[in-house]
Amino acid sequence: MIRFLAALCLCVASLASAASAQDRTIQDVLSEHAEVIVKSSRKTIAPAIDALANSGLPAAQSVLQQWQEKNMWFVEDEGVFYYGEEVDRSTYNLYDFEDGALVGAYDKGDLKQLKPNSGIRAMIGAALVQFQLNDPDPIRRREALLAIQRDGEASHLAPLRASIEGESDPDIRALKETTERLLTISYGEDEASRVAAIEGFRGALSLDARAALNPVMATRIVLAEGLPDNANVKGDVKAGSEALPMERAYEMLVEAGSVTPMPTLDERKAALEANIVDGAVVGIPVSELDTQEARDRAYAALAEAGMVPAFDPDMTVEKAVSGAEFVEVYREPSSAVTNAAEETLKSINRAVSINQTMDLMLDGLSLASIYFLAAIGLAITFGVMGVINMAHGEFIMMGAYTGYVVQQIVPDYTVSIILAIPLAFAVTFAAGVAMERLIIRWLYSRPLETLLATFGVSIALQQIAKNIFGTQARPLTSPAWLDGALVFNDVVAISYIRIAIFVLALVFLGVFLFIMKKTRLGLETRAVTQNPRMAASMGINPDRVNMLTFGLGSGIAGVAGVAIGLYAKVTSELGSDYIVQSFMTVVVGGVGNIWGTLLGAGLIGFLQKGIEWLNPSNTLAAQTYMIVFIIIFIQFRPKGIIALKGRAAGD
Fold first, then answer.
1. Are the C-beta atoms of residues 93 and 102 closer than 8 Å to each other?
2. What is the SS3 assignment for 475?
3. What pTM value is reported for the model?
4. Cβ neighbours for 510, distance < 8 A, ≥ 6 positions apart
5. Which of 21, 54, 48 is nearest to 162 (CA)?
6. How does DSSP assign 322-357, residue by residue?
7. In terms of DSSP bridges, do strands 326-330 and 233-237 run parallel, antiparallel, or are they unpaired?
8. Cβ of 71: how many Cβ atoms within 10 Å?
9. Could you tell me the pLDDT band of residue 605, with boundaries at 50, 70 and 90?
């Protein structure tokens, strides 16, 4: 019976305690710690913050946020805390933390605003982590994780681990697990967990992983003498090396008390002056101290008498340092942790190198597609017809300006680009036909005169563009769906505009091959290229073929201008930036051969990107080296990678 009554009393007490806990409000927690909260001392505030964070009350997050933002007010007469909103300079509306209801308007003189300093705000921020990591809004959870990665603390580790199990979003869960490993590296409780966290980043490309591992590998140089047996030593360091200059080694010996510092010249001079008695220093007249040797003898006499610190004229920094041993010691005491970090960093560096190579290949492929698109028209006019058209770059410029004009008329960027491509082809096709009829047709087989004439046309077209559009760069805006980049990882990425240019280059490669292999114009062009006289005897009009071929090459240059203008500013000098590379592409690939042009563009694009990677600070030097390489290349293969037979080859 007694046992039954005792159990009944215990049950009633437990129920009463549970009921009391359920009735507990956020104001009760604040009231219990009101004194330390109002005082706001960093030394005493921790229990109050912990009590709020661990209260389990829904309003706890709101209290901590308002407190951190300096928007918590204490009504001294009532002993109650609220958050406020300014009505005017002297009046505030206060609201309840539980339900956000308006409590009333209060005079500012009756309130005390809680203004936590930066240290307390940091403590509140750490307490808020557990709420932010479990916030219903996935955006806030992600923001909290990124904030922890930027400025994580040991206090974040426990709530972060607790939040992983209940995370429903797989991407955020993966981010939480990554963040947990990053924090464990720096703040893990035991060696095994830290090693496991470090090894979890093997082969990773994350910048955050490298940022977390680099401090683990931090070292300092110390004297080997007196070093503890369990010190985590990286290796010996020689005094006088780049890592440890001789002067720094001497300073370390002095700081350790292993070497007595020699007095400097000024200190010795001051000591002599301080010990002048009746015009002499230790019996040596001042008039005899006119040489450094005499002053050193006088100072030695003072030192022997114990009046000044000892001085050895033969002592040098090198002699003082000789025989001393120095070592490089990890700041991290655990050798298992540093060994794991070293191996992981090696694997990361290997992965980064591989991905940098892939990124370089993508850049080279992208640049090659741009050069191919710019040179494909020149491959027709120069390669097939043998015309050195120095105005080819200006046809590219005309195409870019055509795209700009279309965008001024059609505001929808997608529609305007779709319209600009055929319109640019038509404009530059017409310009090319006009140029061929008026100038080029009279200069066939006269390459020098053709070069000079087209160079003059180039200058004239640039000036016309300046007169119409001005010297200011004009934007050719890409559609929204071309914004951004295709990101493979932290190292490898390529912009959507470059992908679009690559696709466009492939499309024009297919179109060109179709025209040359499957159409009458292509058949006639190939016939005129191989033997114009025989083609004429078969009923083909060489003049008409030359005109259409030149117009086709010019039209393709105009389309290339639209594509290039999407990522480069449209100016009157736009074409001159690509004319040299276009000629090099055609010449290196093989004059008059589309596959040669493709290979030439690839060679020049990859070569330029490779040289820029070796010398990233000087793009002009990269272009110079590239031209030198091509000159050497042409010496050994003057007809290019794929030589053309027929008229263009000089047969």
1. yes
2. coil
3. 0.67
4. none
5. 54
6. TT--EEEEESS--HHHHHHHHHHHHHHHHHHHHHHH
7. antiparallel
8. 18
9. confident
